[in-house]
Amino acid sequence: MDAGSAFILILILLIVGLLVLAFWMNGSAKRQDETQVKLSPARVADVVDDAFGSVFWKDVSGPGDLNKRRRTINDSGPIISVDINQLENGASHVAVWMSHWTKKGPAILGADQVMRQKKKVLRRLEQA
Q1: DSSP string covering 26-77
Q2: What tens-digit pLDDT sequence spans the chain (128 residues)?
Q3: What is the pLDDT of residue 106?
Q4: CB 3.0-4.6 Å disulfide test: which of 24, 25, 83, 104 passes with 111?
Q5: CB 115 within 8 A of CB 33
Q6: Which range marks the domain in which residue 120 is found?
Q7: Where residue 37 sits, what CATH number does that domain have?
Q8: How confident is the model at residue 49, as a pLDDT?
Q9: pLDDT at 51
C-alpha cells in the first residue's frame, strides 16, 4: 500500500467514525431519561431551574412542565423539556428529553450540550 492509498483509507475511516459518533450522539440526546426523587414537585422545579441557570438556557414554551432552549445567535438551539409528576408517596417522577432540535446533515446541532445538560439535571436531582 503506497502513501496515497493509506491516506485515502485513513480519510474514509475518519469519515465513517465521525458518522457513527454523530448517530450515537443523536440517539443519546433524543432519548428520554427518567428518575424518581424524594422531593416535592415544587422543589424539583427549583433544582431543575438552578441546574440550567439563566446564562446559556432560556425559558420557552413547549410540551413539558419546564422547557429550556439553548441560547444561540439565531434561536435555533435545542429545547430540553422536563415533566414533573407527583407520586402517591409524595416523591416525584421526573422525565427529561429533547423536544426540539435542528439538524445539519446527519448531526443534531447541540447534541453534546443536550447530553451534558440532561446528565447535570439528573445528577443534581439525585443529590438534592
Answers
A1: HHHHHS-EEEEESS-HHHHHHHHHHHH-SSSEEE---SSSEEEEE--TTS--
A2: 788 888 999 999 999 999 898 889 888 899 999 999 999 999 999 999 999 988 999 999 999 999 999 998 888 889 999 999 999 998 999 999 999 999 888 888 889 999 999 999 999 999 98
A3: 83
A4: 25
A5: no
A6: 3-127
A7: 3.30.310.80
A8: 95
A9: 95
Q: How far apart are CA 125 and CA 28, in angstroms?
A: 19
The one-letter amino acid code at 89 reads N
Cβ–Cβ under 8 Å, residues 32 and 115: no
Q: Which amino acid would we find at residue 56? A: F
| Closest residue by Cα to residue 96 from 72, 62, 128, 71 | 62
* Contact in structure between 59 and 81 (CB atoms under 8 Å): no
C-alpha cell of residue 115: 447530553
Extract the C-alpha cell encoding 60. Answer: 420557552
Whose cell is 421526573? That residue is 94
Residue tagged 458518522 (cell numbers): 19
Distance (Å, whole) CA 117 – CA 111: 10
Q: How many domains does the chain divide into?
A: 1
Structure confidence at residue 76 (pLDDT): 86
**Would you say 25 and 108 are in contact if contact means Cβ atoms under 8 Å apart?**
yes
Reading the block at residue 98, the C-alpha cell is 429533547
Cell output for 82? 422536563
